[in-house]
Design goal:
Blueprint (H helix, E strand, L loop, with lengths): L8 E4 L31 H6 L4 E4 L6 H10 L24 H9 L4 E5 L4 H10 L4 E5 L8 H13 L1
Parallel strand pairs: 1-2, 1-3, 3-4
């Protein structure tokens, strides 16, 4: 990728990928007003920061991800995707409500979307409506992001 070509975007969800819902074990500690924050693995921060992409929060946590999650990961403040107001179109055809907003935000740029709710309907919508490369990477919400996920992400990012 030349220096004039923008980096691919990486849209990152919090619940599931960064806060797994499995049984643990998790380190003891206080998650403050969000008790599940103790499940955030700080080792993921350097791995995310080391990816050749532009990181964005794509979560219902919105700006709170910068206040509560980014510091636990050692990440700087990241830009946040602004979600549209809910509409009657949300969920039509099994497409996740985030999908149309991410397509609009990416505006043809290569992107990765990391989420635990991605389905085949989302992949089909992106394939039909996005002219650039895209990787919709579903994470097991019981486990969260793993070393294997980062192997996949790095390989895809190197290929675009």
């Amino acid at each position: 990728m030349s220096s004039s070509t923008p980096l691919p975007l990486l849209y990152l969800d919090v619940d599931g990928p960064l806060i797994p819902f499995g049984a643990g074990p998790y380190p003891p500690g206080d998650g403050g007003p969000h008790p599940l924050l103790v499940r955030v693995d700080a080792a993921l921060g350097p791995l995310l920061a080391g990816l050749p992409c532009e990181l964005w929060w794509a979560t219902t946590w919105m700006a709170e991800a910068n206040e509560c999650v980014a510091p636990r990961l050692g990440l700087p403040e990241l830009p946040v995707v602004a979600w549209p107001e809910p509409s009657d179109e949300d969920g039509r055809g099994g497409v996740h409500w985030k999908t149309p907003a991410l397509l609009a935000h990416a505006a043809g740029r290569p992107f990765v979307w990391i989420d635990d709710e991605i389905t085949g309907a989302d992949r089909a919508r992106v394939a039909d409506h996005h002219p650039g490369p895209a990787l919709l990477h579903r994470v097991d919400p019981g486990i969260g992001l793993t070393a294997g996920d980062f192997t996949t992400l790095r390989a895809w990012l190197r290929s675009v």
